[in-house]
Design brief:
Layout lengths: L10 H11 L3 E5 L5 E4 L1 H7 L3 H4 L10 H11 L4 E8 L6 E12 L5 E10 L1 H11 L1 H8 L15 E2 L5 E2 L1 H9 L9 H7 L10
Antiparallel strand pairs: 1-2, 1-5, 3-4, 4-5, 6-7
């Protein structure tokens, strides 16, 4: 058998193997930003079958930061997205990192965009546990270092500008579930007629 005819020496075969077996989610769009190909990991990450993802246009993306990153790549420049993202096709909320690179035709015009996506949710949960919730919350609101909280209702504003109850914010960003109780001061104020049982 001619060594040159072996599949491993075929560039199309190599590309297909990398595309299909990559541990990361990969998508490719046409020059208009419509998905023309995606691998199984993309289907898993975005919570939708490949048939539903193919033909999807970036114009339907609700997240402005993700949309801007894709538009930048369609204009011929590399771009990046990192943050919490709610998928349109599968309604899956996850924290992801995405890198977009433009492809080019021989004449120099953009042939499409290659998007490589990584689910960072598990990594963030581990980081949160290692660093502690206070430090993690500070990391979420960089670069200002402040956590925007309503002075009246105490809701917290997330990076997308949505106001969330404290419990939901901590659950979403740091995988922390809160248990509710009443502190002694509030118990005395709210239930003055109820005296705590004394230990015998």
């Amino acid at each position: 058998m001619d060594p040159q005819a072996h599949p491993e020496n075929d560039s199309a075969w190599k590309f297909k193997t990398i595309f299909e077996y990559s541990p990361l989610a990969i998508m490719y769009t046409d020059p208009r930003g419509t998905i023309t190909a995606c691998n199984a990991n993309a289907s898993k990450l975005f919570g939708a079958p490949q048939e539903k993802l193919i033909g999807f246009s970036y114009k339907l993306i609700r997240d402005k930061r993700m949309r801007r990153a894709i538009v930048k790549a369609l204009m011929g420049k590399k771009s990046r997205f990192e943050g919490e993202y709610l998928t349109v096709t599968g309604n899956v909320r996850t924290y992801m990192r995405a890198n977009f690179s433009p492809g080019f035709f021989p004449d120099g015009s953009v042939s499409g965009v290659i998007g490589i996506f990584e689910d960072m949710s598990a990594r963030r949960r581990v980081d949160c546990l290692e660093r502690g919730p206070g430090e993690d919350l500070g990391a979420i609101v960089k670069p200002s270092g402040f956590l925007p909280i309503c002075a009246s209702c105490k809701r917290i504003r997330d990076p997308q500008g949505k106001w969330n109850p404290v419990e939901l914010y901590l659950k979403t960003h740091c995988d922390i579930n809160l248990s509710h109780g009443v502190c002694p001061e509030c118990s005395e104020r709210l239930y003055p007629d109820v005296q705590p049982a004394k230990a015998k």
